[in-house]
Amino acid sequence: MNETITKEKVNGKLTRSPSKVKKRGKKRNFEEIVKEFISPYHVSTNRYELESASADLTSLPSYHYKFKKNYLASIIVRPADTESLSLLIKKCWELSLPITIRAAGTSCFSSATPAMGGVIIDMRRINKVEHIDTEKMTVRVGAGISWLNLMEKLSDYGLAPKVYPTSFKTSCVGGFIATPGKAGIGVPKYGTMADSIISLTLVLPNGKVEHISKDSNGEISLDDITGTYGIYGAISEVELSLTNLQTSLEIAGYGFSSLEDAVNYYKALLSKVPDKPFFLSISERKFEQYSHINFPSQDWLVWAVYYDDPEVTIRSISAAENLAQNLKGIKVDESYLKEKWRDISDAEVAIGRTSRNIIFQEYWISNENLLSFYESYLKRASKYKFPIATYTISGEEGWSRVKVFGLSDITRPIEFFSVKAFLHDLSMESFKQGDSLYTIGIVNTFYLLKYRREVVNQRKILKKKVDPKDLFNSYRIVKARMKHWRISLLFTTAKLLYKIF
Ligand SMILES: Cc1cc2nc3c(=O)[nH]c(=O)nc-3n(C[C@H](O)[C@H](O)[C@H](O)COP(=O)(O)OP(=O)(O)OC[C@H]3O[C@@H](n4cnc5c(N)ncnc54)[C@H](O)[C@@H]3O)c2cc1C
To answer: CA nearest 300: which of 323, 279, 282?
Structure first.
């Protein structure tokens, strides 16, 4: 705790970081300055905390910081409100210290981890429910609140958020706004996270506080903030539109032996049932097998959750049943579906029981291309010996987030890199067919630089304007640490060694 943060340790780029400042004739370090306005209990330089906050589920960040110091933060600060957040960011600006904003850290691909060392700002204490308007059905809340806490508070008023990620038990409102927030619970029925935002408060890289709404016409818009991983500032408060707590939840699930029938059924549930599902997913049997103890025997499972008034959910379930019969779907036992819904937030992680490392990639595939993407996945997968599994959740209209897991072990490096190669080939294929990746972090921004130059260039212009010192970790969306040709060379070598031709 009392360790001095020196210039070298706080910033990978030495020339930009005068971390000791002179005041009243006495030199003070950054930690001392911060402790003057943030409780010392919420300023940490503890080695274990730094390592854990500089990592994520993909285990790649921790692999990186073992070898490269600049992937490890030097200090974690947890401000409690917009005022202290603004002061903290202003101090970082004055001292040119790199910042990484972090909430629950459930996103992957190093999207909430440092790439230039420096300060991690943990947003989770900015979590107050400031105002609930039951008539307008809106809430103003600190962006660091977890979805679960928000849902519990709102339920007292008969209200609920429209959309949230399946990681809702831990993940925070600000995290879902800054990651795409385009796939998850409620999205097929109510639209994306961005659609629910009325306004928000952003602390800019110079510490200035800006209130931004749908109608504001300043330099930075709501569209610039949603899905840009905190590169333009920290969201401290959000005003969201809500929905009523509903009274009836019903689940329909069918197994299919043909991939084509499963995909057609999935798409029909979105277009041919009058009431949209609250949640919709399609998964391969292997995903069910690796994440649940008992599982249906058909190769593909499609299941939908309807959450509304009883008449609406019953009508939807019956429409879903009719469609399934036409496509030879086999009804899945209700108790299994209930278990899946109860365990929804754990399923992605539970698959990790079968391997020492969860290696995965998240693809953003148009529903039009879903069948061809899956066909290509199956064809490529047949060449590999390691276990592979996939599942998809429905997202923004016309789009799906497809998650592909390769279950291997870092202790078998050739196999480990072959799994990465398999996911890499699918990534390139998805970009070439007009699709993309879902989550963008330090380890996969290089795909954007290669395949979506125009998006990157556009984002760079605003980045230069609002963050000319480049303090808010930009190694996502606008800058890549890795080079496409080096990754391709590494993975091609791995495939040759693994005898994949
Ligand atoms: C089991 C599981 C299920 C998941 N399900 C879904 C899902 O259904 N849909 C989905 O989209 N994702 C899902 N994810 C990914 C992840 O949980 C979500 O993206 C989540 O919204 C991230 O929130 P977080 O609080 O953990 O943010 P973090 O991981 O801490 O941060 C994510 C990004 O947002 C930025 N950020 C965080 N807070 C702020 C802020 N206040 N201001 C500015 N920038 C900020 C960070 O810098 C980082 O770039 C899942 C992950 C897991 C492990």
So the answer is: 282
